[in-house]
Design goal:
Bound molecules: adenosine-5'-triphosphate, magnesium ion
Strand content of chain A: under 5%
Helix content of chain B: 25-40%
Distance between the termini of chain A: 50 Å
Radius of gyration of chain A: 21 Å
Radius of gyration of chain B: 18 Å
Structural class of chain B: alpha/beta
Number of helices of chain A: 9
Shape of chain A: globular
Order of helices and strands of chain A: HHHHHHHHH
Oligomer: heterodimer
Helix content of chain A: over 70%
Largest sheet of chain B: 6 strands, mixed
Largest interface: A-B, 22 and 31 residues
Number of helices of chain B: 9
Chain lengths: 221, 246
Amino acid sequence: MPSFSHFFDTLFSSSDVFIRAMLLTLELTVVSIIVGIVIGLLFALLKISNIKVLAWISDAYVFLVRGTPLIVQIFILYFGISNLFLLPDFWAASLALAFHNGAYISEILRGTIQSIDKGQMEAGRSLGMSNSLTLRRIILPQAFRRALPPLGNQFIIGLKDSSLAAFISMNELFNVATTLGSNNFDEMTYLLIVAVYYLILVAFLTIVVNLFEKKLSISDR
Amino acid sequence: MEQKEMIRIRNLHKSYGDLHVLKDIDMKVLDSDVVCLIGPSGSGKSTLLRCLNYLEKKDSGQILIEGTEVKPDTHDINKIREKVGMVFQHFYLFPHMTVLENVIEAPTHVKKVPKAQAIEEAKALLAKVGLSDKADVYPSKLSGGQKQRVAIARALAMKPDILLFDEPTSALDPELVGEVLATMKELAMEGMTMVVVTHEMSFAREVGDWIVFMHDGRVVESGPPKEFFTNPKEERTKEFLQTTVF
Ligand SMILES: Nc1ncnc2c1ncn2[C@@H]1O[C@H](COP(=O)(O)OP(=O)(O)OP(=O)(O)O)[C@@H](O)[C@H]1O
Ligand SMILES: [Mg+2]
């Protein structure tokens, strides 16, 4: 174990590199979650559509993502995508993570959409609103609100999963930590340091998600 | 003057799987009339009401709304629903919107009424149901009776020709029933055409123009309230009225 003073010295002296890496981790996470929400919503809607083929496609997607390790998905998508299109590494990594998060998010959203009382849809329809208008204006806002706690949780899982982007040479937190660690023959110090950065990010995200929840729960008070 | 036929139902049948819920229903609703649908639980009252705005699909028979038969494949069901409003037992207000937002939602998004005008009309409707001071609160803050009155205002905002009510007071605490019935009575006096599924016999007797008694999926007896309540002809009707509190 490194001594306290050595740990703090290294923490401060390496802060430039780590903060840059932290921003990249944050970017990867935010982009992959936002794109993941779009993908997740799409597949959640396919799943609850009354069209069998579409629901089946959604099932297949969730099955594939849940049934294989994230690192395998990242490698397949990374090498697959960069063989097909010339995609910057950042986007290859983000899309791979988004594809992965999207499956979990689609399950979250499917559940909360289905948990909304079917009377809400009937009330909208009986006012002359179309199915899609009612979905957009009445059902989805309520479903998203209910999804916020599990989405926040997925956000944090996504943040930590982004460390696997190190394996496709993104200079995010984990990659920087292992590189500096082996260059300086001091792995443990840098691993402890990177743990601190992850904890800071998770604490920050938790606060943001809580603020969101508070803001959206005005109607319940 | 002859009253216009707002709703005409002929030989309506509806089943859920093996369960034959509506059996050869014939019925009409005249302009400005209040038709009260009564009958024991499970007799098919809600199903019949829900067929009228196509929340349930009929199996066979005819439903004419203001003289035209609606074919879901060729007609725009949403257009019919603009004319036929509905008030539910459990209100189904939109919980993420304020009272005012609930009321202007459909006019602004379906009829594309300008927002300022919709708000003005909504405020007038809220005043009418006695809830002007609640415009900016969320539904979770309202009592059941207030919620139901907002639901009525929300339905009225689309300026429907016909309003359907499915047991509008059954989910309310007894002391809140009166305020909702009073609002409905006021609407009836203004000439709104209404079809009301209810267990409130005194309301049916006082406000109803026509009573329809259903049992086991059939219309067993119907008539003007005075005759219906004082001189029922069918055995089943007599039995039902004997077990019902007024
Ligand atoms: N969606 C459905 N699927 C299957 N059966 C149904 C469905 N809706 C209603 N039923 C059945 O149809 C019959 C008539 O139901 P309906 O709700 O129309 O009765 P009701 O007269 O409104 O009764 P209540 O006074 O209890 O509201 C009942 O036997 C009910 O169980
Ligand atoms: Mg019913």
